[in-house]
Amino acid sequence: MTLASHIATSPRFKDNAKAALADPDLQNALKFVEVNFIARRREVAERLPEFEALRDSARDIKDHTLAYLDLYLEAYEERLTAQGGRLHYAVSADDARRIILDICRDAGARTVTKGKSMVAEEIGLNDFLEGNGVTPVETDLGEYIIQLRHELPSHIIAPAVHLTKAQVEDDFRRVHTHLAPDRNLAEPTSLLAEARGVLREKFLAADVGITGANFLVAETGTSVIVTNEGNGDLTQTLPKVHIVLASLEKLVPTLEDLAQLLRVLARSATGQEMSVYTTLSTGPRRADDPDGPGAYHVVLLDNGRSSMIGGEFRDMLRCIRCGACMNHCPVYHAVGGHAYGWVYPGPMGAVLTPSLIGIDKAGHLPNASTFCGRCEDVCPVRIPLPRMMRSWREREFERHLSPATVRGGLAAWAFFAKRPRLYGLAAAMAARVLHWAGAARGRFSWLPLASGWTRYRDFPAPQGETFQSRWKHRNDRPRPGSPP
Amino acid sequence: MAEHEARRVGLFVTCLVDLIRPTVGFAAVKLMEDARCIVDVPRQSCCGQPAFNSGDRATTREIAAQVIAAFEPFDYVVAPSGSCAGMLKVHYPELFRGDPNWQPRADAFAAKTYELVAFLVDVCGVSRVAARLDATATYHDSCSGLRELGVHDQPRALLRTVEGLRLAEMRDANVCCGFGGTFCVKYPDISDAIVGKKAAAIAATGAGLLLAGDLGCLMNMAGKLQREGSTIEVRHVAEVLAGMTREPAIGLPAPDPAAKAAASKAAGPGPAGVGPMGAKR
What we know:
The structure holds two protein chains of two kinds.
Chain A: H1 13-21, H2 24-46, H3 51-67, H4 69-82, E1 86-90, H5 93-106, E2 111-114, H6 118-122, H7 125-131, E3 135-138, H8 141-148, H9 165-175, H10 188-205, E4 208-211, E5 215-217, E6 222-227, H11 231-237, E7 241-247, E8 251-252, H12 255-269, E9 277-281, E10 295-301, H13 305-309, H14 324-327, H15 330-335, H16 346-357, H17 359-362, H18 364-367, H19 374-378, H20 385-398, H21 404-417, H22 420-438, E11 443-444, H23 451-454, E12 459-460, H24 467-472
Parallel strand pairs in A: 1-10, 2-3, 2-4, 4-7, 5-8, 7-10
Antiparallel strand pairs in A: 5-6, 6-9, 11-12
Helix pairs in contact in A: 3-12, 16-20
Chain B: E1 7-11, H1 15-19, H2 22-34, E2 37-40, H3 49-52, H4 57-70, E3 76-79, H5 82-95, H6 102-111, E4 113-115, H7 116-123, E5 132-139, H8 143-149, H9 153-159, E6 163-167, H10 183-186, H11 188-204, E7 209-212, H12 215-227, E8 233-236, H13 237-241, H14 257-267, H15 276-280
Parallel strand pairs in B: 1-2, 1-3, 3-4, 5-6, 5-7, 7-8
Helix pairs in contact in B: 5-6, 5-8, 11-12
């Protein structure tokens, strides 16, 4: 049980979704995902002839790493330690939080700056540090905004994508009390400049910098982050202590593998060829380095992942957190990320969240999918997301967690479906009754037991006899073109 | 094709076509018979998707085994639905993986299974149809057909040979309509938001006719369009390709006999077929 799981609203997914659909600001903001992210990815993917081959190779690299994860972990730790870094293995979220707090306390830290890290969100790090007298300051613009608003990110690479510019401006004016009323904040760049001004002081005041890692490279003991704002570099080079918080599936064998994965990451995420900054960190400051942290810690989080390696959700550990699946998801486009009720939204969240907080809490997530398959179609590491959502539904069904109405309806339907002759009779009867009731208008605007359908759509009246009963009389069937 | 022995095809009708719109089934039969196939329809119920997507694998396997056995005598299995064909072709083998008795049967079954329009074009080599319809149509790519079976170019290629028919592509034709099987009744609010966007994209083309290859998606989109008061007609692509468009479009009432007589006089004689429904009245 993690701290963060206490605040999961995933069980209330339906209510969350309803509220999201009725929120005009959110609906407006979500258009950015649906239009821009998709167009940019398509454009940049089409420009690179080997993009599909790179996706295969990215998948293979991650599969290979997972197959030999123990060996690569050992190699990584050895290289890291040889370079003066320290590896802390955190089995649970609780372990990770305590390890990080201990490092902060040893450093006498009052303020820590943070680069963007979904794993930090997963373990609820900010609330924990704050509750223990250490002030965390998010330095990624999106994360900074949602920290001001005490929210979770609504997207794994664009944490504040659920907000309009006007909402962000309001937040800045509320919190940045030094702002002159006539200061123009209408442009994203002016918002960024304002945040940078405020953050500059925090960068210099911070005793510890915490970043995530997009990748950890075994052959060199390196951690890698990609950012577009440069905040990650200031977070990890200015304070005297740098803590990297990463989950164990971020490991890749070599720098060559890293280069392959970087080529699909930014293209899939933002439609960039590369992120603006790609920063490799290998240990603390060396004697002849001009700057850098005096201490370099890597907190490697498991939190249930190692138990996924042997199971049916193993492929999920290939995920490189690009967000392409949610960018292309019609359900995400409709309700945004907060409706999913926890840290990871969209299709990847629908698979990962039940692993981390339990299918009993997150059951809606893998169910709220049309299985349209667009997520799998764009996933840079080809994770079979719909198949794994279905696997969660199977576990739910086996544990009798699916709603009684669903189970009852399914059992009744299955009784007939397994008996084609009986099914044919029942269908013929239903077709006749519904045809009789609906033929005059051609459709129904209300049907018993089908209000989920008829609340929003009409239901067509059957044409009369079923196909199969007509087929039995096929010899009477007039040929097309023959007179009626 | 002439040198081929006639293909023996088992039509997998799909439960929605069987119950709601038999015309689609007869259109499929006509198209395949025109392509020199011998078509028959073994007794059947459903492909099992409702159970499969609800996590009930045991029931799904029972239904799948029954379908595989029923279609074993045929050279091909064809369904007028990408979703059901995807279930038969892609997911049945998954259900029996590792089962020494059933895996080979499921694999053989999958190998001979096709979505209708893909079967006509890719297997039978059909390159044009003898049908006529004066209309502007827009075509929606249903998800399973598109992404599991690669159905995209085939329906467009055949529709282009329908005399009098113009095609107007909609924005995001490849984006889900929000049907998703049980999804649309489990999460009606979300489904409504998705199909609302789809209805707007359809309307924006100015087309008077919406076509697709899956009755579930078609019922969803037709139901939404009609609830919004749209007069856009909605049909399965097979109806148009087979020239069987005299039946009222999905969700529309049969015209009263006097109006019908006037309409058929106005339309004049043509290759447009009469569905088996027409004869029954």
